[in-house]
Design goal:
The complex is a heterodimer of chains A (about 300) and B (about 250).
Chain A (H helix, E strand, L loop, with lengths): L8 H12 L12 H8 L6 E10 L2 E11 L4 E5 L6 H8 L7 E6 L2 E2 L5 H8 L2 E4 L11 H12 L4 H14 L15 H13 L5 E5 L7 H18 L2 E6 L2 H5 L4 E6 L2 E6 L1 H6 L3 H8 L15 H9 L2
Parallel strand pairs in A: 3-8, 3-9, 6-7, 7-8
Antiparallel strand pairs in A: 1-2, 1-4, 4-5, 9-10
Chain B lengths: L2 H25 L3 H12 L3 H25 L6 H39 L2 H7 L4 H39 L4 H11 L2 H27 L5 H30 L1
The chains are: A alpha/beta (about 300), B mainly alpha (about 250).
């Protein structure tokens, strides 16, 4: 895959003809609200979070979290397991609603967005789930074609063209006829990635893209994250706990702990950061500000107690 | 489960039903999806429905013959079997089998889809999973159920005839003519209405339990069990209500 795997010149001509015939095509190929937003605010963050508060069953996950995500960059959000990284993604994508504070995505307030406006915004986002989340009753080809079939009236030939291009971009054109059950973990994640980019999103969100992959698949996914970001000019938000691997592709890294962003900057900035929590996380130390032990009563006390009847 | 919880669940299911009805106009244009579900829930249940119908009809023929012979009216076996099947056994037994075969399959399928993030993925692709996945399955079940009940009754009548006429030597002419004279149009209507309502109830319970199943292996298993048990109880309860309403 070379420069722009998105839409070839020939396909663009076809699209122009289709639009002249009033066929519905994804508006990314025209101009949409986010395009206008970009052109007005080239330097403003595409995701802007202020004073975010969120609690699950009374347990606070975020308390006063602030975050800016710049457009067109790979932003990696790091944090120990259980710090609410995935929850943060659910809040950014509107799958959960913040308890307090504001989340602006492309200038839209996620708290006041109507259901229709939320769906309109989501058409400009792609998300890669940790499990891949492929639709198990559809083949690889139909999985990638799914968003096109749901949102556009494109003719079958054009759908085939687009799907094959996206599958080629992730190197799985040959697997188009397979069912999701026949794929390995790394392959299903690549198919899910092809599906996430088939509508040419402006924001691409990855939830733990490297979890449970072998070194080869891991390298493939890492390279794809970087390539898609650069070739398609999209904003990439990656949630991960693989510090070293992510440092190779990240423009900005942020570390979340205790419900706040505790450090952010380029990968080099983070490496040279002296604070205990960053050192513990980047260096992979067992104990530190993030304790190894889950809070528990006194160890010896509890052992002795179990002996007495 | 206490009364408040049960009422709460009834309310939630009613709300879910209204939501599905509201989404039906948007789901109907893609009739192919519904046809596929009619195949999954209906066509794939035909063999078990036909087999059960045959045996139920045969038992009915045998028992009916024994009973009616005591009163010397064995030739009314046809009308007795037909009314029993069309009004009661057809809709009820089909609904129970439907809950066990199609309902359980629906609940576990939807539960697994939710456990593997497929609904979240659809929502992220700006596709409403209720409209795209749940409504076609619900409509498929609602359409299949009366058809399956009709097949059950037809095969059941054939089974009763097999035992009554072929084995017990009831006169074939009076078996069929008594049936044609004795079964009224309103009996058929009762059967169709019952099976339609059972179809709505069983499909609703299955898709609700599946869609809201806890996203774990245990949760999916529990949703499947609950689908079958709740459907069975609700069908028998509704059957009593409907029978008394038709009197």
């Amino acid at each position: 895959m070379g420069s722009r795997p998105a839409v070839s010149t020939r396909a663009r001509w076809k699209l122009r003809r289709l639009r002249a015939r009033n066929v519905r095509v994804p508006s990314r190929w025209g101009t949409g609200p986010l395009d206008q937003y970009y052109s007005l605010n080239a330097s403003t963050p595409i995701v802007k979070i202020r004073n975010l508060g969120y609690a699950v069953r009374g347990r606070p996950i975020f308390a006063g979290l602030d975050m800016d995500i710049a457009p067109g960059q790979v932003t990696v959000i790091l944090g120990p397991s259980g710090t609410g990284k995935t929850t943060l993604l659910r809040l950014i994508t509107g799958q959960a609603v913040a308890g307090s504070g504001t989340i602006l995505v492309g200038g839209e307030d996620m708290r006041t967005l109507s259901a229709d406006a939320l769906y309109a915004l989501r058409r400009r986002m792609g998300m890669l789930f940790q499990s891949g989340a492929l639709l198990t009753d559809l083949s690889v080809f139909e999985n990638v074609a799914f968003p096109l079939r749901e949102h556009t009236d494109l003719p079958e030939r054009l759908i085939r063209l687009l799907v094959l291009m996206k599958l080629q971009a992730v190197g799985l054109r040959g697997a188009a006829a397979l069912m999701p059950q026949e794929l390995s973990g790394g392959m299903s994640r690549r198919v899910a990635l092809a599906r996430a980019i088939v509508m040419d999103p402006e924001i691409l969100i990855y939830d733990e893209p490297l979890a449970g992959l072998d070194p080869i698949s891991l390298g493939v996914i890492l390279r794809l994250i970087k390539r898609l970001n650069d070739a398609l000019g999209i904003t990439s938000i990656v949630v991960s706990h693989d510090v070293k691997e992510m440092a190779t592709v990240a423009d900005t890294m942020m570390l979340i702990s205790g419900g706040k962003v505790v450090a952010h900057g380029t990968p080099a900035d983070l490496k040279s950061n002296g604070s205990d929590i960053v050192r513990q996380f980047v260096g992979g130390l067992a104990d530190g500000p993030v304790p190894f032990n889950y809070p528990a009563p006194d160890y010896f006390g509890e052992l002795l107690e179990s002996e007495s009847p | 489960m206490n009364l408040a919880e049960a009422l709460g669940k009834l309310g939630a299911m009613t709300w879910f039903l209204l939501r599905m009805i509201a989404l039906t106009p948007r789901a109907l244009p893609r009739f192919g999806l519904i046809v596929q579900q009619i195949f999954n829930t209906g066509a794939l249940s035909i063999v078990i429905i036909m087999l059960s119908g045959l045996f139920v009809g045969m038992v009915l023929g045998l028992q009916g013959f024994q009973l009616l012979q005591r009163f010397g009216s064995a030739e009314t076996l046809g009308v007795a079997a037909a009314i029993g099947l069309v009004k009661e056994l057809g809709p009820v037994v089909t609904a129970l089998l439907f809950a066990g075969r199609a309902g359980a399959a629906l609940a576990s399928e939807l539960g697994l889809m939710s456990a593997t993030d497929q609904f979240s993925a659809m929502e992220m692709m700006a596709v409403d999973p209720v409209q795209r996945v749940v409504v076609p399955r619900f409509l498929g079940g609602v359409i299949s159920m009366p058809l399956l009940a009709a097949i059950f009754s037809v095969i059941g009548i054939y089974g009763a005839q097999l035992v009554g006429v072929q084995i017990m030597r009831v006169d074939s002419g009076s078996f069929w003519s008594q049936m044609r004279a004795g079964v009224e149009f309103r009996d058929l209507v009762e059967g169709i209405v019952k099976s339609g309502i059972f179809g709505v109830a069983c499909s609703l319970i299955a898709v609700y339990e599946g869609y809201y199943a806890a996203p774990t292996a245990e949760g999916v298993g529990r949703a499947t069990t609950r689908t079958v048990v709740t459907s069975a109880v609700i069908v028998l309860f509704l059957d009593y209500l409907l029978t008394s309403a038709f009197l």
